[in-house]
């Protein structure tokens, strides 16, 4: 049976579906089948609501893609921050170590110079004393001048000879070292003074602050670096002050010299990690960001791709993309509508309507046919039940059911719910059994059919005459109607053998006292032939094509008006 405006013959599709759904076969949809599913749609039935893909799913897809995209940049930034922190701390440790090493060297040298003139302490500041002092200042690296003090006052300087100045002895840390902002000779150049005392007084070796600054600047990298002597400190700007050292929150190192009473402090202020990241790890971060973005996009694409038939159908079901189309069934005697067969259509946004024979077999194999049929029943009930009074008396509404339904105890509940939606006696529910999958009769199926019969549900055998199981079904189940397959109807008038077959089927139904419905009636000649054979109900394009459920009631009213007009005309 071929229906609709298919471009792909059924023989081409079915092997693919069968291969796909064979137990143990790949769970992924072959590309050909995916293409078939998405490309082969009919263009019938315009005016359907635009059912978009499930909103929930769309959000989940975006959320999952973001979750996939984020770890790489987060990991990249984490690694970058960790690496920057580690590097800044290492630099601070190294700066402190190098500074201590070099300053110790300088201070050792100035200490030696002060010790070298200790026998001159207390002696008068004559030419000989000055000569000794100048000699030491000239021959010791880093030492700018050497002075002598007595009784708390400077009295002899290598630079100017006799002098009298307060030494401010308490300002020397441990009595040995003093950091100064400048002195009488160079008031703006910091100095570091080493003091060597003996009972007669003290010798003072003065180191120029510019050496100290050079040491600091050579050792420093990205960090801040300070030399601290007592309360005074000297930073990389070369100034001496007693203001507190700024908070070094992102790296910190501090060490006190083991030889001289001073401390070196290094570290990184707030914002250094960010600067470090931007200057050194930017390409790495950009790469991590691009990687994250790429993986997020790939994830988004993959989630948007058809995965397994089950997933595709489940998503479509969640998105309410399966819609009921109704095709009228008429009384052969007067052509009046007695009800309709419900036929499922898949309304795929952007693609139009997908024919049921392209997805029903897959829905049956995946078991999704059960919730799909339930959804269809609910949709039909919700649209038609409020208009039950406008329907034909005991309106016949037929749903196709599959083998899986016959083993599903929920079918009974679904049928009950469907009938309960309508006022009692207004509709007659028909279940049409197809032969696509063989129904295995068991005690459970027997019980189910008995229960269905008990609540007034009728059973029809669909496509009767073309399958070998139809007769078995007749024996096994309580069958209320046979639907003659449209292939017999098509051959009416074509050959005598077909005519005989049709006659025999009709005779069988009459003998069994079962109702007959002929499908696929397209011409008046077919209608007349079937009517002459006493086939009770007819269905086919001659009376109406499958239509969206919302068009069914207006079409029914139109049909009634047309019949009324004809009767009026005749009378
Ligand atoms: N050429 C021609 N065709 C006519 C004429 N009158 C009706 N038809 C088509 O014949 C099919 C009759 O349904 P079916 O035999 O139950 O065959 C159905 C049924 O077996 C299955 N199907 C449809 N809806 C459902 C469903 O909700 N559940 C299940 N399990 N199967 C369904 O898909 C099959 C195909 O459905 P449709 O494509 O809707 O095709 C429908 C209908 O559109 C006519 O005059 N000429």
UniProtKB/TrEMBL annotation:
<keyword id="KW-0973">c-di-GMP</keyword>
<keyword id="KW-1133">Transmembrane helix</keyword>
<dbReference type="InterPro" id="IPR024744">
    <property type="entry name" value="CSS-motif_dom"/>
</dbReference>
<dbReference type="Pfam" id="PF12792">
    <property type="entry name" value="CSS-motif"/>
</dbReference>
<keyword id="KW-1003">Cell membrane</keyword>
<dbReference type="InterPro" id="IPR035919">
    <property type="entry name" value="EAL_sf"/>
</dbReference>
<dbReference type="InterPro" id="IPR050706">
    <property type="entry name" value="Cyclic-di-GMP_PDE-like"/>
</dbReference>
<feature type="transmembrane region" description="Helical">
    <location>
        <begin position="62"/>
        <end position="82"/>
    </location>
</feature>
<keyword id="KW-0378">Hydrolase</keyword>
<feature type="transmembrane region" description="Helical">
    <location>
        <begin position="277"/>
        <end position="303"/>
    </location>
</feature>
<protein>
    <recommendedName>
        <fullName>cyclic-guanylate-specific phosphodiesterase</fullName>
        <ecNumber>3.1.4.52</ecNumber>
    </recommendedName>
</protein>
<keyword id="KW-0472">Membrane</keyword>
<dbReference type="Pfam" id="PF00563">
    <property type="entry name" value="EAL"/>
</dbReference>
<feature type="domain" description="EAL">
    <location>
        <begin position="306"/>
        <end position="560"/>
    </location>
</feature>
<dbReference type="InterPro" id="IPR001633">
    <property type="entry name" value="EAL_dom"/>
</dbReference>
<keyword id="KW-0812">Transmembrane</keyword>
